[in-house]
Design a protein that fits this description.
Elements lengths: L1 H12 L1 E6 L4 H14 L2 E6 L2 H11 L7 E5 L1 H9 L3 E2 L4 H6 L5 E3 L5 E15 L24 E2 L6 H14 L1 H13 L9 H9 L5 E5 H9 L3 H9 L1 E3 L10 E9 L5 H11 L2 H9 L4 E2 L9 H5 L13 H17 L3
Parallel strand pairs: 1-2, 1-3, 7-8
Antiparallel strand pairs: 3-10, 4-10, 5-6, 6-8, 6-9, 6-10, 6-11
Helix pairs in contact: 2-12, 4-14, 6-7, 6-14, 7-14, 8-10, 9-10
The structure holds fe (iii) ion (FE).
């Protein structure tokens, strides 16, 4: 009788409910390995970032979510401000992941942790623009680039995060003037995603664009000749190499506020930081590992210079702090 009573508890102990905004085939192998090693079964809810946040809000305290996996610090910050995470403390995670890639809650806890990184790089047309003219983010506001700059919407999380760290470095006044300068240099009203910006540089519509590194790597590795032809026409710069370093963002995760399997959630997050999981997690989307000392061979990233660049080390927690301010600045300077 006693064992019959124990069984359901044990069964419940060996489960993890993962709400994930990432879905790559390589992640599957990683999750299977986690279950084989720990005996913890993963139930996954896959949706995009906005869908996951909406679902968590609707479920409230009844939510079965244990781990929430989102893409970009701006989205993690937004989930944080909605109270969807609970802080944790893990010596293993503290040792594995650099401090600037996680959000400290200021009370000895960590709200979310980055598990892969991506660089926000500049792509340019070498026929129209010299490399020295786009060596920094600051130069995107330089009058020399008038009529040439293209980006996706300013209020997309990838840009919000970049602008949040630029403003952290420059201060509010210079930061807003910079945003205004970027808007003044635009070749067109922001539209499309990062890949569309790269293609618009290749087609000659834009001279300079901003993109996450994995989109460029994806085109380089594409089986479609037209994608590879796009990359032959453009050049990639990792900005701010002699100053603050290239802005690096993350895909990251935190333990859900109402997690029923908190211990399993922490074991899972520690697993994500292991060299084995880092390899799958990073390579699955042509990203870089977040854990210290883990190197991943990715020929496309290497070809772009992604094996040895200087990354920005401003704590990504500042994205949460500056998010509203950046949005207000975008409205004032007319950044669509
Ligand atoms: Fe993306």
């Amino acid at each position: 009788m006693a064992s019959a009573l124990c069984l359901p508890v044990h069964a419940q102990d060996k489960v993890l409910n993962l709400y994930s905004a990432r879905h790559y085939q390589t992640d599957e192998v990683m999750y299977d390995t986690f279950t084989k090693t720990t005996g913890i079964k993963i139930n996954r809810v896959d949706a995009d970032d906005a869908g996951i946040l909406a679902r968590l809000r609707a479920e409230g305290a009844a939510s079965p979510a244990d781990v929430i996996l989102l893409v970009d610090a701006a989205r993690l910050a937004s989930a944080e401000s909605q109270g969807l995470f609970q802080p944790i403390r893990s010596a293993k995670l503290d040792a594995a992941i650099p401090a600037h890639l996680r959000a400290d809650n200021g009370e000895g806890g960590v709200t979310w942790t980055g598990f892969s990184t991506r660089a926000r790089v500049i792509v340019y047309d070498p026929l129209r623009v010299k490399r020295e003219a786009v060596a920094t983010y600051e130069q995107l506001a330089d009058p020399a680039l008038k009529g040439m700059v293209c980006t996706r919407s300013g209020s997309h999380p990838y840009n919000l995060s970049l602008f949040a760290t630029v403003i952290e470095r420059m201060g509010d006044e210079r930061g807003e003037a910079w945003l205004k300068g970027v808007v003044g240099n635009m070749a067109r009203t922001p539209k499309g995603g990062d890949t569309d910006q790269i293609k618009a540089v290749a087609s000659g519509e834009c001279g300079v664009a901003v993109t996450n590194s994995y989109y460029a790597a994806r085109l380089l590795k594409s089986t479609k000749p037209e994608d590879r032809a796009v990359m032959e026409k453009v050049r990639v710069v990792f900005p701010n190499q002699s100053t603050s370093g290239t802005h690096v963002n993350i895909a990251g995760a935190g333990v859900a506020r109402h997690a029923k399997n908190r211990e399993n959630a922490i074991v899972f997050m520690e697993f994500l930081a292991s060299p084995f999981a880092q390899d799958y997690f990073a390579n699955g989307n042509n990203e870089f590992p977040a854990a210290k000392g883990v190197k991943v061979e990715n020929p496309a990233l290497k070809a772009m210079g992604g094996d040895s660049f200087k990354a920005e080390t401003i704590p990504l927690g500042v994205v949460a702090k500056n998010l509203t301010k950046v949005q207000q600045m975008l409205d004032r300077v007319g950044y669509k």
